[in-house]
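hiii so um. not sure if this is the right channel but i have a protein structure encoded as tokens and i wanna go backwards to a sequence. like what aa goes where. can anyone help
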């Protein structure tokens, strides 16, 4: 809860005939910071500025992320003086979903309302052996404008702060443990690189969330310079949203390809630093009559030559306003078999949450259209 400073000023007759009120006799309130916006190193620096020891940062990380405590008064291994000092200068944000949709298959879609009234989505996905993957957003909207993506139709509103990225994880863990995280929700993570790197450092912190680097995957549409910078700054599993095997088709589906065409993108993939047994995941959304032919499969094999890769084949998730359609089952199977027969790891990802607004941007779009905040969708013929 934010502390409000109230100043009482006595107004006399002399004030009313021209004398200035001495309003600066009341000190301005301190602007408090959200500790979830700080990386572990920044938290150490913040506490150092208060004259506190380095190990206090570890204590705070454990309280905030490992135990989910947001009230300084409950952090009992901190001195009373430090708790009061923190309460005066900082706060710890806490999220609850405004809307939750739950599928019959266990998929859960959260819609979170931000401080400025914007909304973002997060999806909790049940996996085999009782494990859970959480798909988080990194921006409000997206600037990439991919033709098959509903979020792209919103345009980019703003980047999410580190706190707004990690709070999706904090909120979802109230419903149970999360074993894996994929940054594949709303937004292009590499378009918000600095805040995403901070969020990753928080997620990796051994005193906090303590996620291993193999448990988090970041997906990009192909911002080549940022891919290389990411590899220099932090270790994370990389997924590349490929979706086409020719520049002509990828230009249509993903406008970023006009800036960084396939030749440059694949060169960046070859240069991306991988651990000894690591692979780059290539996401390939199969769209009927657009990129699902055997000729596409053959070209994909050539594109991936010399790259330690695996391919996730994702049948298109149809949504309102899109002209694209899911391929025939036979086309999906033929595409996968062709890759497998050429020793390429190719996994078909089943679509989950079909009975709820599970596709990226669907829940946000539906609710905001109902509130007349977005125009109704009308299909636009694809340019071929």
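sure thing!! here u go:
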């Amino acid at each position: 809860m934010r502390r409000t400073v109230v100043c009482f000023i006595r107004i006399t007759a002399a004030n009313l005939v021209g004398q200035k009120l001495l309003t600066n006799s009341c000190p301005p309130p301190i602007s408090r910071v959200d500790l979830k916006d700080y990386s572990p190193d920044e938290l150490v620096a913040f506490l150092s500025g208060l004259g506190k020891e380095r190990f206090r940062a570890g204590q705070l990380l454990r309280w905030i992320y490992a135990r989910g405590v947001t009230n300084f008064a409950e952090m009992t291994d901190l001195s009373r003086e430090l708790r009061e000092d923190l309460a005066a200068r900082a706060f710890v944000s806490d999220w609850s979903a405004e809307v939750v949709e739950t599928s019959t298959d266990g998929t859960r879609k959260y819609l979170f309302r931000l401080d400025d009234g914007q909304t973002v989505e997060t999806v909790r996905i049940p996996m085999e052996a009782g494990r859970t993957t959480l798909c988080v957003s990194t921006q409000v909207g997206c600037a990439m404008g991919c033709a098959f993506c509903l979020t792209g139709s919103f345009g980019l509103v703003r980047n999410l702060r580190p706190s707004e990225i990690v709070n999706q994880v904090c909120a979802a863990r109230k419903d149970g443990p999360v074993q894996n995280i994929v940054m594949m929700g709303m937004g292009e993570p590499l378009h918000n690189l600095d805040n995403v790197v901070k969020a990753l450092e928080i997620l990796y912190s051994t005193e906090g969330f303590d996620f291993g680097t193999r448990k988090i995957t970041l997906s990009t549409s192909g911002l080549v310079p940022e891919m290389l910078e990411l590899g220099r700054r932090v270790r994370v599993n990389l997924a590349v949203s490929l979706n086409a095997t020719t520049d002509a088709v990828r230009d249509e589906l993903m406008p970023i390809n006009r800036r960084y065409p396939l030749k440059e993108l694949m060169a960046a993939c070859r240069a991306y630093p991988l651990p000894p047994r690591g692979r780059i995941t290539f996401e390939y959304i199969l769209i009927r009559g657009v990129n699902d032919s055997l000729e596409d499969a053959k070209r994909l094999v050539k594109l991936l030559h010399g790259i330690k890769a695996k391919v996730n084949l994702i049948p298109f998730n149809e949504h309102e306003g899109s002209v694209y359609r899911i391929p025939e089952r036979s086309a999906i199977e033929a595409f996968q078999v062709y890759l497998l027969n050429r020793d390429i790891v190719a996994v078909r990802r089943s679509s989950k949450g079909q009975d709820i607004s599970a596709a990226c941007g669907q829940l946000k779009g539906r609710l905001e259209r109902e509130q007349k905040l977005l125009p109704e969708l009308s299909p636009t013929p694809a340019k071929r």
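oh and The chain is about 30% helix and 15% strand.
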